[in-house]
Amino acid sequence: MVTRRNFLKNAGIFSAGLLAVQSDAFGFNSNIFEFPLKDFITKRPPLKERKFSSKAVEDTILKVKKQISNPELAWLFENCFPNTLDTTVEFEIIDGKPDTYVITGDIDAMWLRDSTAQIWPYISLVKKDPKLAELIKGVINRQTKCILLDPYANAFYKDFTKESEWKNDITAMKPGIHERKWEIDSLCYPVRLAHGYWKETGDVSMFDNQWKEAMKLILKTFKEQQRMDGKGGPYSFMRETAWATDGVPLSGYGYPVKPCGLIVSTFRPSDDSTLFGYLIPSNMFAIEILGYMVEIFSSKALKDDALAAEAKELQLQVQKGLNENGIIEHPKFGKIIAFEVNGYGSFHMMDDANVPSLLSLPYLGAIAADDPLYLNTRKVVLSENNPFFYKGTAGEGIGGPHTGVDTIWPMSIVLRAITSIDEKEIKACISNLIKTNADTGFMHESFHKDDVAKFTRKWFAWANTLFGEMILHTSIKYPHILKEIGN
C-alpha cells in the first residue's frame, strides 16, 4: 500500500522530461499572459470508466468553459473540476443508506480532510442533481463511521477489517485505520461538509443517531486535547522512521504546552508533526465549525440545547486562548496571526501549503479576506519571512516540510487566488497555475521552483478539484478575468 510519505520516499520527484514544458520564467513579474498555441485532448477517463457522472457537473463544465478565453485553461478546468467524481469515489447503498468512499488519488485510503475538500465544490450543484446529493450524503455517512471507529485517526480504509502497513506504529492502531495521526482539522472538515450540505438543501435525513454520536465524540476529543489538566490525554504517537516530521517527541505526546483553552494538534494537515502543539490555523477552523455545531443543534429540526451549549462553551474557550496566545507582534509587520504557539510565549512563524493554513483562513470562513490582521499575516507568509515561501524561474508560492525545500504546492497558489482581493494578483495566480501543469492537464502536489517538469504526485484529486473550485469561483465573482487571460 502506498502512503503519502512512502510515495515521496520511493518515487521521489516525478520527471516529466519528455513533456514540452514552457521554458520562459513565469514569476509574478514576468509576461504571464502569453501562451503558445497547443492542441488539447481531454485527459478524462472514457465515460464508461468514470466512477460517477453528474449532469449538473457536466453542465457546469460546459458553461464555465464558454467564459474562458485561454484554451489551455479551459482544458485544465475540464480535466480537473470533475477529477474527484471521475476517478476517486465508490458509491453504494449500505444498510439502506448511501455510502461513499473517497480515495485521495494515488493512495487507496480516505482522509477525512481530503474527502471533504474533494467533494466540497459540488455542494452548490446538488439541488440540480439528486444523484449528486445522494453521493454527498454518502460521504457524510462514511465519515460518521470513520469518526466512530477512531476520532484520532486521519485516514481510513473502506474495509474496516483491513490492516495498515503502519499497524506497528506506537499508538492505538486498529483494523480499518490507514494512519492514526491526530490533526484537529480531521474533525473540522466533516462538520463543514455536513453544515454546508444542510444549508444548501435543508435535508436532515443523514443526521441520525450515529451522526449525533460522532458530533459528541468530536466535542469530547477536542476537550481531551485542550489538555486542561496539564497532561497529554489518551492520545500519543510514535513511529520507527528516519523522517523527523513523522515522529513525535517526549514519548509521543509532543513538547509541553501550557493549558489556555486552545486545542493541541499533534500533526498538521500535511501529516507532518507540529513543533508547538497549538496549531493556530486549525484552532481558528475549530472555532468556525463549533459555531456550525451551535447553529445545527439550535435549529428546530435538530434542536439539542445541551449539545449547543457544550459547543458554544468550547468555542468561547478556544477563542479566548486564540486572543491571548495566537496573535503576536512581528518586529517588521506588527500584529499578525502565529502559525504555532505553546502557551508559554514561544511561537513558530511559517506557513504550510496544506489547508487549513494561515493563507487559507478566509476560504474556511475563519476571518474576512480584508481584515487588517489577516492582510498583515498574508504579507508575511507570501514573503521571504516565511521559510517555506519559494520564488524561482518556474513560479512562486508556499510549500512545506512534507515535500522538502524549493518545492511549491499549486494548492497554495490556488488559495492565494481564492483569498485575494486584488484582481491583478488573481490573474497572476491563474496564469502561473496554467504553466505549472507541465503539459499533463492536471495539478500536482508540488513542483520544483525552477522546473515544473519535476513534480510530485501525478494523481492528487484534492489539488485538481480545488483548482476547479477556484475557476468556478472566479467565473462567478470575476468573470472578466477568465476572458482577459491571454490565449
Automatic annotation (TrEMBL):
Pfam families assigned: Glyco_hydro_125 (PF06824)
SUPFAM superfamilies for the chain: Six-hairpin glycosidases (SSF48208)
Keyword Hydrolase: yes
InterPro entries in UniProt: 6-hairpin_glycosidase_sf, 6hp_glycosidase-like_sf, GH125
Key words of the record: Hydrolase
A GO molecular function held by the record: hydrolase activity
Residues making up the signal peptide according to the UniProt record: none
Annotated protein name in UniProt: Glycoside hydrolase family 125 protein
Organism, as annotated: Flavobacterium artemisiae
